[in-house]
Amino acid sequence: MGKKRGARRMSRAETVSAAAGALVPANDQAGRIEAFSFGDPEAVLDRRQLIDMIECWHNERWYEPPVPMDGLARAFRVSPHHSSAILLKCNMLAASFEASPLLTRRAFRALVQDYLVFGNAYLELRRNRLGAPLRLDHALAKYVRRGIVDGAFWFVPGNASETAFAPGSVVQLAAPSVDQEIYGLPEYLSALQSALLNESATLFRRRYYLNGSHAGFILYATGEFADGDVDALREALRASKGPGNFRNLFVHAPKGAENGIKLLPIAEVGARDEFLGIKNTTRDDVLAAHRVPPQLLGIVPANAGGFGDVTKATDAFYELEIAPLQAVFLEVNDWLGAEAVRFRERSAARAA
Fold first, then answer.
1. Which of 18, 85, 114, 275 is least buried, going by the fewest C-beta atoms within 10 A?
2. What is the pLDDT of residues 179-205, one digit of tens each?
3. Residues 6+ apart with CB under 8 A from 66
């Protein structure tokens, strides 16, 4: 075949200049389609590696935690199962706690909640004028920072100046972390994405109903209509909106052809989403991270067999989860050198 009329071969400089402002097909071989991939999918928000690659940096006074404390505080109410599992453990620990002259029930409950939410909990020792221990006050873990000097702690609120605690007056309870030994990390971090997805599904469904997309459709008509029928149909559709919607509409077309009127829903994708599947799957992830039996959170079983005996589940949960947590808070006694934290036996707590 000869050359086409008016066509000429572009120079290398012209080719580069044209490619800068045009979409040039790659590997164009006689019009054949070339398929290629860009690699494995990667989540935009997947930055968990940052925790593994850096240590807790400091500003010459205190260390910053590896995970933002304000983010964990906001995530506490992200889903009902996440907060309920934490509050269940908190309630069971508070019920078995025996108040002492050094530590009140209120301070202990706040201590437990901080430990379960942030993976860190702090108590400040107050002394009398003679230097003897007077009481232990709860310090908000969200704002407490560990100093670079051994035994030093700082209170760093967001809207006020930082304050240094008296040296040696703060005890820290920290959940173990495999990356650093300065701050603890909560055990539910692996299920936090599932809890956020649960919240996103709920918000999507709520907005879906609030904006009225569930009533959207396209009325496609191709049949023959008498004069005024289209206007009457339009007015009937307008009247079906607003309060009292989802009303039935009757259309009569004597000369209309088959399939002359079609109703094409435009919100079908939102109406058929896997809302229940997302909710149930993310709920199971959260409960697995907290290791809480579903019957203890009031979850209705989907099958007729149920979840089993709730009493046996409670006993197993107490032995496997609550008793180990009690041992964590007994570390306060080791630091203080006195019995400030004590718990009742399981039989005594059950009888009460």
1. 18
2. 888 999 999 998 999 999 989 888 888
3. 51, 54, 55, 56, 177, 179, 180, 183, 185
